[in-house]
From TrEMBL:
Name assigned to this protein: Peptidoglycan bridge formation glycyltransferase FemA/FemB family protein
One Gene Ontology biological process: regulation of cell shape
InterPro entries the UniProt entry points to: Acyl_CoA_acyltransferase (IPR016181), FEMABX (IPR003447), PG_Glycine_Bridge_Synth (IPR050644)
Coiled-coil regions listed in the entry: none
Keywords: Acyltransferase, Cell shape, Cell wall biogenesis/degradation, Peptidoglycan synthesis, Transferase
Pfam families: FemAB
Family to which this protein belongs: Belongs to the FemABX family.
GO molecular function: aminoacyltransferase activity
SUPFAM superfamilies (alphabetical): Acyl-CoA N-acyltransferases (Nat)
Entry keyword annotation includes Transferase: yes
Organism of origin: Nocardioides islandensis
């Protein structure tokens, strides 16, 4: 790039064309995501080098009550060159544009990884009584680009959010669990490679589901009600607040309008009963396990393992480079209520990854301070 880029609004069509030209982009940075979040005002921004579109970002605006000021939020974005030696040249025109259009602060989540822990390293940490968090264990790999991004953001005045919350305190999880589908030498991993990388319990459960006659199929929009009924049951059992059925209908329709495989519903049946169901999302070469549900009565047929294996095989067939099981906390304490989540995911043989986290830049400090105080009061 010959000079600092300029930033201006682009159409959803321009934005989608840019996304399609990338190896992958977070699904939270696709134009469709604006339709999934109608309570936010959305705009697509483009970064231009002359007339060439070289970056894009979905900005979600949440207005302050009774004020024409907003928090401008770019979840897992923007999609720019995060390896650039001068990030300020990329971020300054964005923050200038947003301030001119009423933003009192900008929040973003750079889609870069800072550290990785192999499944073996995580399992050793779980087994060690002196280890409580991922931070207590040396990472398998440190990512230099991620480290430079964090350093530059500090220097530019951005503030890391939610670092004390173990990964779930901010809007998007800082820690994820992923299964790489490309080996370190660049070769693609086969189904046999991935299965061999799982722990014995996962392999046993996949075989048990097959022997029990669990059948995994793709569902359609007409199956969303069945998914949601099971998801609501899961929410009651596991003590979380479920999203309404309308949310998933909007998500499915908006994403499918962009690409036919952007949103896929997977269903696992046993003797006619729905025992597990999941939602998968695909953008380019990145596949996500986004939502899941399972029955309590039929857990012994291992429908959850069966549906995950079907999704993994589909990702391999589609040429994905990563199968992403999304968020975990950084806890390795077996007494922590979140420990079961990482123990389930670590069985896939993948790796825990730490992202750069979510960062705020106050543009109007007094309003930002009042906003922060209000968020603390809400708990």
């Amino acid at each position: 790039m010959t000079s600092a880029p300029t930033v201006r609004p682009i159409s959803p069509e321009q934005h989608l064309a840019f996304v399609r030209a990338q190896p992958w982009t977070s699904f939270l940075q696709t134009p469709a995501w604006a339709k999934v979040k109608p309570e936010w005002r959305a705009e697509s921004l483009g970064w231009f080098d002359g007339s060439d579109l070289v970056g894009a970002g979905l900005v979600l605006h949440r207005n302050l009550p009774r004020l024409q000021r907003s928090l401008a939020y770019l979840p897992e974005g923007p999609v720019i060159d995060w390896s650039a030696p001068d990030l300020g040249a990329w971020l300054a025109p964005m923050t200038k544009h947003l301030k001119q259009h009423g933003a009192f602060a900008v929040r973003m989540g750079p889609p870069v990884v800072t550290r990785r822990w192999s499944a073996a390293t995580v399992k050793e940490g779980i087994a060690d009584p002196d280890v409580r968090r991922l931070d207590d264990v040396a990472p398998t790999h440190r990512e230099p680009v991620g480290a430079r991004v964090v350093s530059q953001l500090h220097e530019l005045g951005w503030r890391l959010q939610g670092s004390e919350g173990g990964g779930f305190a901010a809007g998007q999880p800082r820690y994820n669990f992923q299964v790489p589908l490309v080996a370190a030498d660049g070769t693609r991993r086969t189904e046999e490679d991935v299965l061999a990388g799982m722990n014995q319990q996962w392999r046993r459960n996949i075989k048990k589901a097959d022997k029990a006659g669990v059948v995994v199929t793709r569902g359609g929009l007409e199956d969303l009600k069945a998914f949601h009924d099971l998801y609501a049951h899961t929410a009651e059992r596991d003590h979380f607040t479920p999203r309404p059925l309308a949310y998933f209908r909007t998500m499915a329709e908006a994403m499918a309008a962009e690409e036919p495989d952007r949103f896929v519903l997977w269903l696992a049946h046993h003797e006619g009963d729905l025992v597990a169901a999941t939602i998968a999302v695909r953008v380019g070469t990145h596949d996500w396990y986004s939502y899941g549900a399972s029955s309590t009565e039929n857990r012994d047929v291992r429908g959850s393992n069966a549906v995950q294996w079907a999704m993994l095989r589909d990702a391999i067939t589609a040429g994905a480079t990563v199968y992403d099981l999304r968020g975990i906390t950084d806890t390795l304490d077996p007494d922590d209520p979140h420990a079961g989540l990482i123990q389930f995911k670590v069985g896939t043989g993948g790796e825990a990854v730490e992202h750069a986290g979510e960062w705020d830049l106050p543009l109007r400090p007094l309003l930002y301070k009042a906003f922060q105080a209000a968020m603390k009061r809400r708990g």
